Amino acid sequence: MIIEAEKAIILSMWGKISTQADAIGTQALERLFASYPQTKTYFPHFDLRPGSAHLRTHGAKVAAALGDAVKSIDNIAGALSKLSEMHAYVLRVDPVNFKLLSHCLLVTVASHFPADFTADAHTAWDKFLSIVSCVLTEKYR
Amino acid sequence: MGFLSAEEKGLVNGLWGKVNVDEVGGEALGRLLVVYPWTQRFFQSFGDLSSADAIMSNSKVKAHGKKVLNSFSDGLKNIDDLKGAFAKLSELHCDKLHVDPENFRLLGNVLVCVLAHHFGHDFNPQVQAAFQKVVAGVANALAHKYH
What we know:
The complex is a heterodimer of chains A (141) and B (147). Chain A has 141 residues and is mainly α. Chain A has helices spanning 4-17, 21-35, 53-71, 76-79, 81-91, 96-112, 119-137. Chain B has helices at residues 6-16, 21-35, 52-57, 59-76, 82-85, 87-96, 102-119, 125-143. Chain B contains eight helices and no strands. In chain B, α2 packs across α4 (59-76) and α2 (21-35) crosses α7 (102-119). At the A-B interface, α2, α6 and α7 of A face α2, α3, α7 and α8 of B.
């Protein structure tokens, strides 16, 4: 459960993150594919080389979805309902991979926003990303 | 090829040379206790762990973090035989400390976040990937003697 103080941290950091959202989303994916090459198996149809148009487009999509979750932080399940269905019925990404992408998103945010990534902010983002991950896998079965 | 390629060893050693091991140790252990508060179960004698500020400034946390990361740093010198390097510590964590090995994975990932925080863009995807291999290797080595 995210407490009010943590929501405030996320909202305020999102203000800064959103100005570079596409780059953050893209870099998180680059980190995912570099550290966890098995995750590339979900993208046989993409050019996953760093800097590719596919990566940038997909990174932007991931960032936009996170933005939607932040804007509806009190109803993430509602905001991501369609995306949740897509992951359950179409994409069927194994649940373990959400932890891997969440970690890479954390690392990307930490490296871009050193002044803001305090221990409390680290906790808030880790909790928020776990909730997003839960929402995206909750219709799996 | 050993555990890491020559290039990966270069990336790891290149970054590690710039790390203040004592400070980063305290930071990593502190963040473990803040972000994953259930890990505090191993540190009931450490005094005030009641808030992020209390934890991050706690002198026992800093001292222990320093110890842990110095040990990790020694392990890096034996990167091609992590299981050998951490055999005794593995037995200790199983038989005396009773630590679930999942905690080694958690601490490894927190350490990666701390390195990203400190080094910013220098901690690029390739450097991160090399470090993820290292922290996974150390976690496996520490779990290796469990029975």
